[in-house]
């Protein structure tokens, strides 16, 4: 997503919010490859990743008018994709069908955190922590998935972990 023209994306979002289906189709074309890449890397199955992509964009289309700031479309879309992947992953586990994936405990630096706490962090930090601790991915795998350098992933993981530890102490 680093190569996207954020001003152009914001303009497309604005038109989409007014009901312009061509603008939403263009938004889809501009963002779907990155979203699919993330879903496939997270879910490890082509069909399930396509399902996540479909569900994410259906949700985004239905709810785009509720987006308060057009400049927040990309993080909002990423958050939808992440939650969709979590739900699809939980649906694949028979014991997880009745539990909300956001109520899952994740251990970070020896402490248990509820996924909901992690999702309250800034988007990139929460995404990195979920991929590292929930999905058990290595730093270089996360860097590839998120199209970042490994040093950036380490920074977001450290920063997010520190924020979580501060939250747990307050």
Count of domains: 2
| Number of H/I helices | 8
Q: Could you say what the CATH architecture of the largest domain is?
A: Orthogonal Bundle
Strand runs, count = 2
CATH topology of the largest domain: Rna Polymerase Sigma Factor, Chain: A
Radius of gyration: 16 Å
Largest sheet: 2 strands, antiparallel
Query: What is the CATH domain class of the largest domain?
Result: Mainly Alpha
Task: Tell me the β content.
Answer: under 5%
Could you characterize the architecture of this molecule?
The protein is mainly alpha-helical and 170 residues long. Strand 1 and strand 2 (111-114) form a beta hairpin. The protein contains eight helices and two strands; from the N terminus they run ααααββαααα. The longest helix is centred in the first third of the chain and has 23 residues, at 21-43.
What does the secondary structure layout of this molecule look like, with pairings?
Layout: H1 6-17, H2 21-43, H3 46-63, H4 73-92, E1 105-108, E2 111-114, H5 115-119, H6 123-134, H7 139-146, H8 150-169
Antiparallel strand pairs: 1-2
Helix pairs in contact: 1-2, 2-3, 2-4, 3-4, 6-8, 7-8
